[in-house]
Amino acid sequence: MSHQKYQSMPFLFFIFLVSSVLAHSGCDKISAFTERFQSKGPSASPVSAVQQPAAAPAVNTADPAKVPSKPTANTLVQIGAWSLTIDEFKERLTALKQVVPDYDENDPQAKRFVLDELVRQELLVQDAERKGVDQKKEIKNAVDEFRRTLLVREMATQLTQNIQATEEEARAYYDENKADFISPGRWHLREMVFSTEEAAKNALIELYKGADFAALAQEQSISESKANGGDLGFVDAFDFPQLENVVRTLEVGGVSSVFKGPQGFYVVKLEELEGAEPQPYEPIKEEIKTGLMMLKQQQAILQYLEDLQSRADIYINEKLLGD
Questions:
Q1: CA diameter of the chain
Q2: DSSP conformation class of 53
Q3: Could you give the angle at the alpha carbon of 162 between the alpha carbons of 158 and 168, nearest 5°?
Q4: Average pLDDT of 229-255?
Q5: Which of 36, 177, 114, 196 is nearest to 105 (CA)?
Q6: Bridging pattern class, strands 82-85 and 259-261
Q7: CA-based nearest residue to 44, from 112, 110, 108, 104
Q8: Sheet with strand 231-235: strands edge to edge
């Protein structure tokens, strides 16, 4: 990552924060705001970038959590009672590297940019806490929900981290379910489309009596394909879900029942089917193993939840739920 790319990074978190606040102002305003700030380049000092309110209350020394501690040899930065050690900072750089792979965590300028943003962020956090923003109901609810999400995710990770699918399990599943591993084919279709369901059913009756599908399509269909006797040629994708659902149930030479579609009421015939063959095991074995692993993990979590539920004292007011 070049130094030019880093030049926009000091404002990365700040721009994101303000952009979130201005989301209702429209994308154009947000874009202009971002470009204006990025064009100024990095500020000389993180402290000067965010001015503190002139009448900001003093730190509440009665609260032990708010009492500043003396910086240690391992303290990288301290603002009031908040501090960040060099080890904690390196952990954050590692996490950033995972999100932004081309970020160079060894570049001194890049590291300074990230530190500046953490300082700006903490200044805003402390100011928000002094003003009681953290006590707003919606903020407290969001924090609690985020905490619950992290706890659930961690529990799921612990319950499933050692669960894998073996080669033997994948092979057995493939052998028992070969019908589910058919490579996509191509369908040669004919169609007839009618403006009313009654007209479509009458045409279907004529087909049952032995009428030729192509001739009937030329005479009665309202689709553009009527000139070709309803011939759609070979298709490997379907224009709408109902058509796919119907065609996949047909045998070669089979005619569908009447079904609703975008242009009206349809009747289709499968003339030919080609290319639909069983997929070999080797190219798809990793996909099967992944699917089986996920299924086993899901089952493990559900079983654990059932056990917790059986031992928990749970009360649900069904009357209130039904109101």
A1: 95
A2: P
A3: 150
A4: 93
A5: 114
A6: unpaired
A7: 112
A8: 231-235, 186-194, 264-274, 259-261
- Using N-to-C axis directions, what is the helix angle for 12-21 and 108-130, rounded to 10°? 40
Can you tell me the distance from the alpha carbon of 96 to that of 8, in angstroms, rounded to the nearest whole number?
16
Model pLDDT for residues 279-315, shown as the tens digit of each residue:
899 999 999 999 999 999 999 999 999 999 999 999 9
Percent of the chain with pLDDT over 70: 79
| Cα dihedral: 50, 127, 83, 100 (round 10) | -60
Cα–Cα dist 269/190, whole Å: 5
Residues β-bridged to residue 85: 75
Cα gap 141→152, rounded to integer Å: 16
Q: In this predicted model, which residue has the larger pLDDT, 49 or 132?
A: 132
Rounded to the nearest 5 degrees, what angle is found at the Cα of 290, between the Cα atoms of 288 and 293?
110
| Amino acid (1-letter code) at residue 115 | L
Point out which residues pair with 278 in neighbouring strands: 182
Question: In one letter, which amino acid is 226?
Answer: K
Q: How is residue 197 written in tokens?
A: 């369901």
- 203, 216 in Cβ contact below 8 A? yes
Token pair 């369901």: residue: 197
Cα angle 302, 307, 309; round to 5: 90
With the CA atoms of 269, 275, 278 and 281 taken in that order, what torsion angle do they form, in degrees rounded to the nearest 10? Answer: -150
Q: What are phi and psi of 127, to 5 degrees?
A: -65, -40
Q: Element (H or E) spanning 75, and its range? A: strand 75-79
Domains, the chain, in order of start with CATH, read 3-51+63-135 (no CATH), 144-182+280-305 (no CATH), 184-274 (3.10.50.40)
Q: How high does pLDDT run on average in the chain?
A: 84
Q: Give the ranges where 221-311 is alpha helix by DSSP (H).
A: 241-247, 281-311
* First and final C-alpha spacing in the chain: 58
